[in-house]
Design brief:
Strand content: 5-15%
Strand order of the largest sheet: 1-2-3-4
CATH class of the largest domain: Mainly Alpha
Number of strands: 10
Distance between the termini: 53 Å
Radius of gyration: 28 Å
Helix content: 25-40%
Largest sheet: 4 strands, antiparallel
Shape: elongated
Order of helices and strands: EEEEHEHEEHHEHHHHHHEE
CATH superfamily of the largest domain: Isoleucyl-tRNA Synthetase, Domain 1
CATH topology of the largest domain: Isoleucyl-tRNA Synthetase, Domain 1
Length: about 325
């Protein structure tokens, strides 16, 4: 390290494989860093930031290098070592941290431990979720939060399923149509799993199920290949003429990894009332009861009028479906 007027800097040239995580040991990716006069190398980073004369940070402390605060890379190294130890299993983060933040963490960890240990045995980086519609922003007052999904009538686990449909290292484009498709897929999975929900779990011995579990394990072990894992979960859920207890145990094992709660939620749970709805579930049920009476009396004009009334209120009437109705969701 070396001291400059504004703080203490780490000399990255002292780390022989600096940037290996980002597959780079040159200046690429450093354009996001503001240049600092006196730095020996563009990649060098602050271990300690000294407060400027007359400046008062919200949080600052005295140090041998002046009053100030630790660099943000250092904060992560200190927290992870305090709570997880000097060498833990998996360190995750956004793909934007692969070029700068995480290489700096690794350099600090190696210097502190006087070893080649990076601080974690595996570093994993997820790609971005992007919205190309331009409709979401803080300025517009609408940006992606779980509460926004609920307000629009989407069960939150549909969003989880949508994310699992793409590999974590692949960019995922968000759209309400895509979320709606994921919700439909989740509904089908819940319906397929329902017959096995109350069965007594039994260790899978059926070759069809053990083969699926082996393929599932291989997919997850293949850099968390969740898109393939999902298709195997669907295959297991759709399997007919098989022991219900073995099927339940198989679904439980797969869902323990994917976290879709297939064996605890019911189809009706996925029916979330949108914030903009002008009608309650009780009012819908009452209208459907009147419509049933009208149909029994062969008063089809009244039946159609009641159906149109529900459609106008954002309700989808599902004749012949045990659920009876659902919300018509819009973006």
């Amino acid at each position: 390290c070396y001291l400059l007027e504004d703080g203490l800097y780490f000399d990255t040239s002292t780390v022989s494989d600096y940037g290996r995580l980002a597959r780079s040991n040159d200046d690429a990716g450093e354009s996001r860093i503001d240049p600092v006069a006196g730095k020996r190398h563009p990649q060098d980073f602050a271990i300690w930031r000294t407060s400027a004369p007359g400046e008062m940070r919200q949080m600052e402390w005295e140090s041998p290098w002046g009053r100030g605060a630790p660099g943000w890379h250092l904060e992560c190294s200190v927290m992870s070592q305090k709570y997880l130890g000097p060498q833990f299993d998996i360190h995750t983060g956004g793909i934007d941290h692969r070029e700068i933040h995480h290489p700096n963490e690794i350099a600090q960890n190696q210097a502190h431990s006087c070893s080649t240990d990076s601080g974690a045995r595996m570093w994993m980086h997820n790609n971005f979720l992007v919205d190309r519609s331009g409709k979401m922003s803080k300025s517009s007052g609408e940006f992606l939060r779980v509460q926004l999904l609920i307000d629009k009538g989407y069960y939150p686990l549909a969003y989880r399923l949508m994310c699992l449909q793409a590999h974590y290292r692949s960019e995922l484009e968000f759209s309400w149509d895509g979320l709606g498709a994921a919700l439909t897929r989740l509904k089908r999975l819940v319906m397929a799993a329902a017959p096995a929900r109350d069965a007594e779990p039994a260790g899978p011995t059926d070759r069809r199920l053990t083969d699926l579990l082996a393929k599932f394990d291989a997919a997850i072990s293949d850099d968390l290949n969740t898109p393939v894992a999902l298709t195997l979960l669907e295959e297991a859920a759709a399997m007919k003429k098989i022991d219900a207890g073995q099927k339940r145990a198989t679904l439980a094992a797969m869902d323990a990894v994917l976290g879709l709660d297939l064996l605890t939620i019911e189809r009706a749970d996925l029916r979330v009332r949108p914030k903009t709805a002008t009608i309650t579930a009780d009012e819908i049920e009452a209208t459907l009861a009147r419509r049933k009476e009208a149909r029994a009396a062969k008063d089809f004009s009244a039946s159609d009028a009641l159906r149109d009334e529900l459609i106008a209120a954002g309700v989808e009437v599902m004749d012949g479906d045990p659920l009876g109705w659902d919300w018509r969701l819009e973006a």
